[in-house]
Amino acid sequence: RNKDSRRKSDRVALELRSYLHSTSLNGLKLKEQKGMVLPFQPLSMCFKNINYYVDVPEELKKQGIAEDRLQLLVDVTGAFRPGVLTALVGVSGAGKTTLMDVLAGRKTGGLIEGNISISGYPKNQETFTRISGYCEQNDVHSPCLTVIESLLYSACLRLPSHVNDDTQRAFVEEVMELVELNPLSGALVGLPGVNGLSTEQRKRLTIAVELVANPSIVFMDEPTSGLDARSAAIVMRTVRNIVNTGRTIVCTIHQPSIDIFESFDELLFMKRGGQLIYAGPLGPKSRNLVEFFQAVPGVPKIRDGYNPAAWMLDVTSTQMEQILGVDFAEYYRQSKLFLQTKEIVEALSKPNSEVKELTFSTKYAQPFCAQFIACLWKQNLSYWRNPQYTAVRFFYTVIISLMFGTICWKFGSRRGDPT
Questions:
Q1: In the chain, where are the structural domains located?
Q2: Domain 2-366, what fold?
Q3: What is the pLDDT of residues 154-166, one digit of tens each?
Q4: DSSP, res 188
Q5: pTM over 0.90
Q6: Residues 74-108: pLDDT tens digits?
Q7: 114 in the Ramachandran plot: left (φ > 0), alpha (ψ -120 to 50) or beta?
Q8: Whole-angstrom Cα distance, residue 252 to residue 266?
Q9: Whose CA is closest to 234, among 180, 195, 168?
Q10: Phi/psi at 152 (nearest 5 deg)?
Q11: CA 365, CA 160: separation in Å to the nearest integer?
């Protein structure tokens, strides 16, 4: 049995080496999709030995925790590449969203250690903000704008100032076609659960709002959460359309269905405590993942037709680790797969002569005047389309003005009067 396991491990390692050293390694051979209005530069992202610490709250110290800092991520190493759809998976508390927030630069507190590179160059947060997008789990949109107006507003603020209005609108329409929102271009966004767009349509709008900024790297926090199977499939089809343009896409996923899980190309699997236990390609029908964990002595084989995502969560649980006497994080660090990942990270950490370091002459894509006009246009539409809200605000403003005016009537003249 051990010989069979070693043979399977060697075969998987050879396949991984071939896959990871494919021509899409740096995204240099990914061509611009036909018909793209605005070009973008495919970029890779690699990170090495990422550790993240936060201060322990006083409440926990009173409960007996002696440490001053709590470590949420432990020596996380991996890479995201153009044209590759990567999933971040783990149980609740594993740190998948924390890792994504650290890589995206959204963590303002705590201590971050490690190296992050963008196509071989050290990550600069101001530059990275301009070439990346982040789709939050909670969809936040202006309810009184239409779909196309929401996208135009985002484009006006985030596209470079040299892009004219005609090109801007053409790009917005192209993005709507990419995420399949063309039939809903004139529909009001509305309030979630009350009117307007459905949950699935709002998810696609959230993705489109980030996409009109023409990012090279997009992070998505649980894009299928709260959706039924059909809606989740529509959203993932949209995500796959974006990946096919050559962008780097990373998604956190919680308990995915078998169809959703197998739509991903690569996986970063984390256990509780912020440690990686798998980083690499899934393979056809998740074969690489299954063979990797089945090579561990004592791990039960997956049943035919069973969801690989559910199976890997079961066999790598804390209880299973205790039963098998295996630390899956240590098993991964001793595997050939980890060595392959380190090779890829080392290769991506070196600048390529064909890719120049991104720099921008200004901090923001648009000057102050353009930002002010865009915000004024958006608020004007919102107020005129919600007359009840505007009337109530006007009424309260008048009432409060009259009330304070009456209270303070001739107050200054009475103070100056000696009588």
A1: 2-366
A2: Rossmann fold (3.40.50)
A3: 999 999 988 898 9
A4: B
A5: no
A6: 999 999 999 999 999 998 888 899 999 999 999 88
A7: left
A8: 12
A9: 180
A10: -65, -40
A11: 5
